[in-house]
Design brief:
- The complex is a heterodimer of chains A (787) and B (161).
- With 787 residues, chain A is of the alpha+beta class.
- Chain A has 19 helices and 30 strands.
- A 7-stranded mixed beta sheet of chain A has the order 3-5-1-13-10-11-12, sandwiched between helices.
- The longest helix of chain A is centred in the C-terminal third of the chain and has 28 residues, at 550-577.
- Chain B is of the alpha+beta class and 161 residues long.
- Chain B has 5 helices and 5 strands.
- Chain B has helices at 23-30, 87-94, 104-117, 123-129, 141-150, and strands at 2-8, 11-17, 49-52, 55-58, 71-73.
- In chain B, a hairpin with a 2-residue loop joins strand 3 (49-52) and strand 4 (55-58).
- The longest helix of chain B has 14 residues, at 104-117.
- Chain B is elongated and about 55 Å long.
- Chain B starts with a strand and ends in an 11-residue tail after the last helix.
- The chains are: A alpha+beta (787), B alpha+beta (161).
- At the A-B interface, helix 1, helix 17 and strand 30 of A face helix 2, helix 3, helix 4 and helix 5 of B.
- One FE2/S2 (inorganic) cluster sits between chains B (98-104, 135-138) and A (202, 255, 507).
């Protein structure tokens, strides 16, 4: 019987009621009396020298309050980067300035040049059109390899060149890896592109700045996954506002997928302008603006080589990747191709020697940063593609080749700095094979053939490092922030509970899942527990939600705080029951004395804490509220096996996904319904990457995919019903819930399954196609078949 | 500025709008009915779907002035007078057909229009009908399932919850 409450149950989501009735409170739904509106004038060239910005005509337009340009921000800090990578030679990465409004030069289409604040959005937009900007267009660098050539135009004149860093990992292993390649019985090589994506949460970004002269306090309402991080970065590095005078609120947020982690110029602008004008200032991105100002994702060009011995054991792996940083360093950009990518190159396999080289490159494009999976999809894709190719070259079953090389003993220290605590890759593979009916494939392929179609099956594995992250470890790796999470559990006098957390929900259902954990620990009803998040004014400093961390790290903080609550409550109960604390047991929401029928209810204990008439005042303080900060000792390692079955129309090159199955090991699962939903969403994004999505620039740096007309989002027709299973569970060994995180898995594991399936379909049809770059659009597939 | 008057969720509503004011702006800004969302500027996403005279319409493609005199229903008008969810809304909650909730009002309004035209749609028909509604969170699985369930079909056979 599935449980009907607590950990492992699937209660309906409580947040749904407001979303289903139009009562959600998203940032754009917030309007402050007297607010003005800002419109950003953005560069329409990719690279240029700003000769002048003449605002005189625009100043006099109706409703204009004030026009800001780069000059207004000269005394203000730039947008900071939160991660410093050290290169192969021990040198720090090149780190350019990132002004709030462009100063001197524009560096990508969409770079903000001026900001018009007016009484209405229409007036702001009209006035922006009247600003005269004289820009001397400069040659743009778009292609990464071209950007690194001698004499290439420089994105940042004050840097040596366009190379942000040249990173080697693990540099000390380089010689040993080369030697292993020299001795290999077989080497498989694959060159591929991990296509540039745009996260596209359905809610565009919004910022509302407010300022109170009475208290000298600034408030920013923003579409953020991590309001405390925004407060720290913007307050300390950009605007110089101390935390106690700065409040950041992220209310209901309409999806994030990474792109709402970062601190953006528009947030700093609205906060700054509200202070300058002593008037609320609101900005709502149009979708077109989102395309050219939200950080993009992925965009790696990679060569990967896999060495095998005569028995098909993996002996070494070597990669060379070019990673696009875009025109500026977005908040966590440098960490994505390095610590979130290089550390995952072992995958699920016991390859003893690995060397990863990454060259991060500045180009005249929108900054690139974390997008669902961040670095881990790039690692998984290249590894799982090269293994598939190796299996074909060697004429062995791709599943068996994987199994033969699986890590089977845990803990397992990889040669790329991380230690897997637990896992069972054969179990998820077994489960997957059971789900997909591999034996029935030939019959299905035959049936497709009758209709003139080709059918293919692709299988792959994935592993990811989640529960981001142990602060001391990431500190050594260049993080400029800690990555703990916090929780305050406030038990009210009559026994209800408010839990304040630094993590944030933008679709993940925290308001439903987190109470399941606390209610289970206390034996009370979930409806007595409420989650408070998204406002720095009433939550403890915490790092927010990304990297599949909220339950593994934030949930662990809640467990720790609740344990403190239980300890104190037991002391109070012992006093009330005139018993020894050691004899007190908490069960089903009541405290009892072991071996007796004496007990006191949860509500009586909580009331005593706040009405301490009969209370051990000499021993403990009144009140029942505890805070915990939890810093994980390791990452968590969700892993699994995915399979995709495609049908391909040889006349058009069109690929359809016929079946998709995912067998994941997320460790323990708190709410299976929510976990399944997270996987569904990730799969659609991964299938989107594999078949449909791709941000494209022309050679002049014009964004060719600037709206939903040109950027193909997965729609209901593009995906099938998914088969999802998470019954294989090897609990995480180092967090109190034994959970691993599930938010990114679907997007990490699915692209290679799709591409493996398409290559399989073509090879079965006798086509000599070993790889096609994503997105596998009909024209690319057709060209590969007929080329 | 011109004055427009319409019936919104059964109540008379009026306001002064510019010629270029869109219906979605009128609903959100003038009437503060913020359940109708704006997810794009090219009429592609469907976050703004409302019913105008009984038909599903993208409120970002219609001027407020064009809706003068019309009967408009938004997501705020879908639940019962006592706040209880209607069949479609309830099915979305029961089948986890929403995550961040941003596309949800448009999805519910489109689903209602679909079921009034086609009371028992097949999976393919649901997916085709949702061509103009983008959801980035759910992968559509549970949305399609919820709509089929709301139409009274047995969705127990559809893969895992
Ligand atoms: S806002 Fe109307 S279709 Fe996107
Ligand atoms: S639930 Fe977030 S976009 Fe659909």
């Amino acid at each position: 019987m599935p449980k009907d409450h607590g950990i492992g149950a699937s209660p309906k989501r409580r947040e749904d009621v407001r979303f289903l009735t139009g009562a959600g409170n998203y940032t754009d739904d917030i309007n402050i009396y007297g607010q003005a509106y800002v419109h950003f004038l953005r560069s329409d060239v990719a690279h240029g020298k700003i000769n002048s910005v003449d605002t005189s005509a625009a100043e006099g337009m109706p409703g204009v309050v004030r026009i800001f340009t780069g000059a207004d921000f000269e005394g203000v800090g730039g947008l900071p980067c939160g991660w410093q990578v050290t290169d192969r030679h021990g040198e720090p990465m090149q780190e350019p300035a990132h002004p709030v409004l462009a100063q001197g030069k524009v560096r990508h289409v969409g770079d903000p040049i001026a900001a018009v604040v007016a009484d209405t959005p229409e007036q702001a937009r009209d006035a922006a059109e009247a600003i005269e900007v004289d820009i001397e267009e400069l040659p743009a660098v778009v292609d990464m390899k071209a950007a690194l050539q001698d004499g290439a135009p420089k994105v940042h004149d004050d840097l040596k060149n366009n190379l942000c860093y040249d990173w080697g990992f693990v540099e000390e292993n380089k010689a040993a890896v080369e030697e292993a390649f020299g001795k290999a019985a077989h080497v498989t090589t694959l060159e591929l592109v991990n296509n540039r994506l745009i996260a596209n949460p359905m809610e565009p970004r919004v910022a509302v700045g407010d300022y109170s002269r009475a208290t000298d306090e600034s408030t920013l309402y923003t579409t953020s996954q991590n309001p405390h991080v925004i407060r720290l970065l913007m307050g300390a590095f950009v605007l110089g506002i101390p935390e106690h005078k700065l409040r950041v609120v992220a209310p209901d947020v309409g999806g994030g997928f990474g792109t709402k982690i970062f601190h953006y110029a528009e947030e700093a602008f609205c906060t700054f302008a509200a202070r300058q004008l002593a008037r609320p200032v609101k900005w709502t991105a149009s979708r077109s603006e989102a395309f050219m100002s939200d950080a993009h994702g992925r965009d790696h060009v990679t060569k990967i080589e896999l060495a095998l011995d005569a028995d098909n054991n993996f002996t070494a792996l070597r990669t060379e990747t070019y990673a696009n940083m875009g025109a500026y360093l977005s908040t966590f950009a440098p960490s994505v191709p390095t610590w979130l990518h290089g550390t995952l190159m072992a995958g699920n396999y016991k390859t003893p020697l690995i060397y990863v080289n990454v060259k991060a490159v500045f180009t005249n494009t929108v900054p690139v940063d974390a997008y669902r999976g961040a670095g881990r999809p790039e690692a998984t894709y290249q590894l799982e593609r090269v293994i598939d190719k190796a299996a074909r070259e060697l004429g062995v079953d791709p599943v068996e080749l994987r199994r033969q090389n699986f890590v089977t003993e845990f803990p397992y220290a990889t040669p790329v700095a991380v230690e897997y605590d637990t896992g069972d890759y054969n179990a998820t593979m077994d489960k997957l094979l059971e789900m997909i009916d591999r034996e029935g494939f030939d019959a299905r392929a035959e049936e497709s053939k009758k209709r003139g179609k080709l059918r293919g099956l692709g299988v792959n594995c994935y592993i990811e490092a989640c529960g981001i992250a142990p602060s001391n470890l990431v500190g050594q790796l260049g993080a400029r922030a800690g990555l703990y999470e916090s929780a305050t559990v406030r038990v009210n006098a009559t026994g209800s509970i408010s839990v304040m957390t630094g993590s944030h929900s933008h679709g993940q259902g925290h308001e439903t899942a987190f109470p399941q954990v606390i209610a289970e620990m206390l034996g009370i009803d979930e409806s007595m527990v409420d989650i408070v998040h998204g406002d720095t004014a009433n939550t403890p400093m915490g790092m927010g939600t990304y990297g599949s961390r909220s339950l593994a790290v934030g949930g662990s903080a809640m467990v720790r705080a609740t344990e403190k609550i239980i300890n104190k409550a037991k002391k109070i109960a012992a006093h009330l029951l005139e018993a020894s604390e050691a004899d007190i047991e908490l069960k089903d929401g009541a405290f009892s004395v072991a071996g007796t029928d004496k007990s006191v209810a949860w509500g009586d204990v909580t009331l005593a804490a706040y009405v301490p008439h009969n209370y051990p005042l000499e021993e403990i303080e009144p009140g029942l509220e505890e805070t915990a900060f939890y810093d994980p000792s390791n990452f968590t390692y969700p892993a699994g096996a995915y399979a995709c079955e495609v049908e391909l129309d040889p006349d058009t090159g069109r690929v359809t996904i016929e079946r998709f199955a995912a067998a994941d090991d997320f460790g323990n699962v708190v709410n299976p319904m929510i976990v399944t939903g997270q996987v569904h969403g990730g799969l659609a994004q991964g299938i989107g990457q594999a078949l449909l999505e791709g941000a494209a620039y022309d050679e002049n740096g014009q964004l060719l995919t600037g709206s939903y007309m040109d950027y193909a989002m997965p729609r209901a027709e593009d995906v099938p019903f998914f088969q999802v299973d998470h019954s294989c569970q090897t609990p995480c060994t180092h967090n109190p819930l034994g959970v691993k995180g599930c938010g990114e898995a679907g997007a990490i594991g699915s692209p290679p399954a799709v591409v493996n399936a398409v290559v399989d379909a073509l090879q079965r049809a006798g086509k000599d196609v070993t790889h096609i770059d994503m997105p596998l659009s009909p024209s690319r597939v057709w060209a590969a078949m007929n080329g | 500025m011109t004055k427009v008057t319409m019936t919104v969720n059964g109540k008379a509503a009026s306001g002064d709008v510019e010629g270029r004011t869109l219906l979605v702006q009128f609903l959100r800004e003038n009437l503060r009915l913020t359940g109708t969302h704006v997810g794009c500027d090219t009429s592609q996403c469907g976050a703004c779907v409302v019913h105008v005279n009984g038909k599903a319409v993208k409120a970002c493609t219609m001027l407020a002035a064009e809706a003068d005199g019309a009967e408009v229903v938004t997501i705020e008008g879908m639940a019962g007078a006592d706040g209880s969810l209607n069949t479609i809304q309830q099915a979305f909650q029961d089948h986890h057909g929403l995550q961040c909730g941003f596309c949800t009002p448009g999805m519910v309004m489109s689903a209602a229009a679909l079921l009034s035209e086609n009371p028992k749609p097949t999976e393919t028909e649901v997916r085709e009908y949702l061509e103009g509604n983008i959801c980035r969170c759910t992968g559509y699985h549970n949305i399609v399932k919820a709509i089929m369930a709301a139409s009274g079909q047995d969705v127990g056979v559809i893969a895992a919850e």
